Protein: Aldehyde dehydrogenase family protein
Amino acid sequence: MNNQEIDLLVKDILAQSAQTSKQTSSDPICGARFEDINAAVAAAKQAFGELNTGPMSVRQKIVSTLRKVLADDIPELAERAWRETGMGNVADKIQKNTIALFNTPGTEDLATTAMTGDGGMTLFEYSPYGVIGAIAPSTNPTETIINNAIGMIAAGNAVVFSAHPGAKEVSTWLINKVEQAIYDCCGIRNLVVSVAKPSFDATKAMMTHADVPLLVVTGGPGIVNMAMKTGKKVIGAGAGNPPVIVDETADINKASQDIIRGASFDFNLPCIAEKAVVVVESVASQLLNAFASHGACWVKDKADIDRLRQVAIGENSEANKALVGQSPSTILEAAGVQFNGTPKLVVVAVEANDPLMMVEQLMPLLPVATAVNFEQALQIALKVEGGNLHTAVMHSKNIDHLNRAARAMRTSIFVKNAPSYAGIGAGDEGFTTFTIATPTGEGTTSARSFARLRRCVLSEAFNIR
Structure:
């Protein structure tokens, strides 16, 4: 499915969402939820055995079925996630779930390669790990579960999900839906499971379980570090604080609109969203004015900026969790800053070393710092990114600047002249992922990330050149 088709599908789902969100679906009766981790892993292990003995076509049939069955549930998924977590907004969650469902690669991602010569033939093929322990966040709970379930099953695995306690109701509801759809499709029960009551202790038990060889962690650095200490193979999505560089050659009008779209998307919950801007001073005023003309609230008063900083960042130099994923209006009201209308984004001009530049806030409050030239802008952006190597964005028409920034930033995702969400396949080329594994090196994950590359050698045969 191409991006135009996805856009049309999102519009169609949005048109139906108001009516759908009023309906209450009954919880499907199935065995996806277990009282303890041991039972969940045992069930998933048995399901993996059944899947592993079947043909590859079963995996792709499952993927196709999930896309068909879950499409009608996307409005309810978005509504449930928003109501339970209190973060983001329904319309953007609909788009995130849509790209997760329709733009996540299936079995086509598992390309076989071969080498032949006088010595014979060697095949390189992707094979499953078995039972994967996957941790989903509260910021993108349903999107991550859909994205990971498709990729992991396409790779031939079973999955035990550990849902975030802050999104446990919508997560377990979705897991039940997925499991039931798989059973109805191919008769295999418990390929995707979870415990009935997600908790920190259940997550620890899952991480250390002997029958879980691979851990996939989509969450903060604390839970990733905890997984790394198990000694298992870990795919970990780490922290990020994506900077945006705007140089003097950029199309300022387009750049301002793209930045607003990316930084306001689901109220800045995605880890890839623009968190800070560094603009060359010769076009700084032009950019700030463009932000204001395209619906952002440009807060200029120093006292107001101080109050915004105070409510956004706590004494522990971390984002105020009460404002994470909240609307621009909510943030402005919390700071006691007067505003008109319904702003798309809050923008403030600050110094390059301001805490608002350095702390990943996960809210639609965008700090903007200036630099004398591109060279200084790049150095500031590197400090803002903090060596996380996660995501960076740049707006420029200078190919040399774009190339140098991409090489210097070394991020898993580097977006040029587009909103940040282009980096996860929303509106631009590329597949969708919600597990961006920078600390462990996989980058934007897909089915092949959840498989082992195996080597099969046949001596003195099948060389037909």
Q: What stands out?
A: The chain has 16 helices and 18 strands. The longest strand covers residues 120-128.
